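Running log. JK asked me to keep both predictions on one page so they can be read side by side. First protein, sequence followed by its tokens:
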Amino acid sequence: MKIDKNIPALAIKAAAGDVDLSTHPKYRSDIDGLRAIAVLAVVLFHAFPSLLPGGFTGVDVFFVISGFLISTILVKEHARGSFTFGSFYARRIRRIFPSLLLVMACCFAFGWFALFPDELKQLGLHLLGGAGFVSNAVLWNEVGYFDRAADTKPLLHLWSLAIEEQFYIFWPVLLLVAAKRRFSFMALAAGLALLSFAINVGFIKAFPTAGFYSPASRAWELLLGAVLACAMLSPRGLPLLTNAAPAARNLRAGAGALLLALGLALITRGHAFPGWYALLPTVGTVLLISAGQSAWFNRAVLSNRVLVWFGLISYPLYLWHWPLLSFAHIVESGTPSAPLRAGAVALAVVLAWLTWRFVERPMRFGASRYTVAILAAAMTLLAAIGGMAWFNNGVPERAAILDNARHQKSLVMVEDRDNAAACKQRYGFDSMYEYCLMAQPAREPTVAMVGDSHAYHVSAGLLKYYSSIGENLVYFGTRHPYWNLPAEGDPYQEATQQMLELALSTPTIKTVVISAHVRMDAVSPYGKRLADAARDTLRRFTAAGKHVIFMDDVPILPFDPRACIKRAGVASSATRIPCAMPRAEAEAQTPEHFAVVDALMKEFPMVERFRPTPYLCDAKLCWVMKDGELLFRDKDHLSYEGDLFIGKKFAEEQALKAARRAGKTLQ
């Protein structure tokens, strides 16, 4: 095999799957210390984010370390002419699969007994994504308005593992091609790193989610490690990174430690990340690794026994800590208490050591030739189990959860996709940004409901009411249902503006119901803009002779409705008794908004107003569960039962007003 001339044939035994790196002559304890800093930063950030705002950059440190170590092995094997794809991927399976299989299996086992169907459905998809090393793509695809909070995704952290393994699908192939064409490995790594970094910087503003999850915008971090590996194995090297003078080593270590510390302390979730900010932890890591074990900081700090111990268990600790914190969040229906989070971290450390000692090491360094096949088969089985849970909607018939099946259904958004498709076809809507529902798509509409998801969550009740009196309701919209709101590149708002025009211009539509989750006021620039837009909207509809009904929003809950439901086998769940919030707290949420609405109602006396709050609340409490029915599916959206309940009250109010009008007519 032809190899890169810049890389000498090395007589050093490569770190293959049957070699324990911790006893290898070339083992570097300082790199394990660096791993420890990375994993402890991530764990601390996830458990107590305010203590270390940039702790999440520990993942970027892992990327550089991984790129350095794996590329070192690959370059050495190419230099000896001993590289094979089979041996490389067998080592990856032995290294990655054992701990990962154990953690994912335990997560699913707990989820089977404790999670509600929608939660287990999502866990099943994430299990499938984790087993296939495409978690980053799954999470990328989930981002959206109704996406569940990150804290409720126990396998969220597997996105970084997916990035690594996707990189290692292509990197060995590219190195093999470069070796056969006698192309410099270092030049290849540096060129690809620059390209990937450019993609990262280009994506971070326009496509932040893609910039975070895409392997194309993350590969440069692993490639920095690869460049360093090539430099340290090349006779010529890179003087800036390979100068062996003690002063130069100490300077690199000090600069690297400073950059790493700045990243951990200064970068926050509010920054556009990775972008340029990711250079702090990644370049810092490169400098620390290049300094070598003899540099004072690496020798005295990174090679400390405690740090090295945490470094050895860093992989299973990374795998265990997040599911424990996430499940605690799910069970508590909110952020767990500080003692509970601390306990979860302590348990993660214990489980990580047990996993490293009794699972990872025996499987990684065992002599059985069937290990790889068994691990691959187990991962395939786990993927199939995850797929089963996903395709079966979280297996709602599980015996463990049947007692609360009725309440669990209330947590899921009910969607009539066939009706939506028929409505979109009728109006020629051909994009995902346009949405509508219609009681009878074959008939002309007589009532239009316009708004965002806070109109949608009362649409079923209103569809039922208006159908009962012979009217045909159509629901339009996805964003704020007001004219003259700048879309500013938001295609949903642009589509909503077009649908407002449709409601205005359709002659058969006599009644328009407006409902939205907006917060108007008379002070802030955006609040005033919303108020002006609402005023213009009411003016246009009333001027066109439409009967307008303005629906107030529902209260925003200070807790997740899931807190009202008992989870099987989890003693601390269903702690929200009574399942309600103080009415005074609900009424104090948006006084400025309701002051604007009151003024608009005086300005447009012909506009009818409907208030859901009096029907959800009594004198003291606003009820989330009423007469055994869960009325909310999340903190600010009604459940299907809540939708029908408000629809019923709307119908009663309309009937009462009609009776009053009839009485006045008779008089």
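And the second, directly underneath as requested:
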Amino acid sequence: MTYEIMYLSSGMLLGLTAGISPGPLLTLVVSETLRHNVKEGIKVAVAPLITDLPIILLTAFILSRLSNMKPILGVISLSGALFLFFLAYESVTTQAISLHIQKVKPQSLKKGIFTNLLNPSPYIFWFAVGSPTILKASESSIFSSALFLAGFYICIIGSKVLIAALVEKSRNFLNSRIYVNVQRCLGIALLGFGLSFLKDGLRLFGFV
């Protein structure tokens, strides 16, 4: 049960961080909410459910074929650590978000899908962090992998939906100290997660 809780918590942490971090998809969630209504923002928020599946399947398939190649897996783990350190830095140094809104025809789901497909971050995340964690969790049980994914998607989508609702109530939410401070706390947590990937990478190279 300890492993299940650990992977669920990891998924929730990564999902929450991805959900509230400034980026193309969050910007689109907010802009569609302000241009139209919260329903349009929610349509954008669910885009990762559509776009991520092929990325997850492809990266998990590739990594499963590399399971006996420790140096390659070590490089991937170290790359994941660097990516997490970068995300942690961005979260800790985050500033308020300002948007310039123009009225356009709502095509929120389509915009969300294309925005996520053209954003390199999901590809880097799933190859260097997400899929390695799924495969590692599966060594404990398939249930652990499922909990990681469930925690991730509940939090990435849920946090974006919550932000859409808060922004509809108050346009200044993304300029608030609450938003900035939550980001910084998540950045510190991500730093710890990055250190675990660094340790795994060094272990695969035989340094630990």
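Observation for JK regarding the second prediction: The mean pLDDT is 89.
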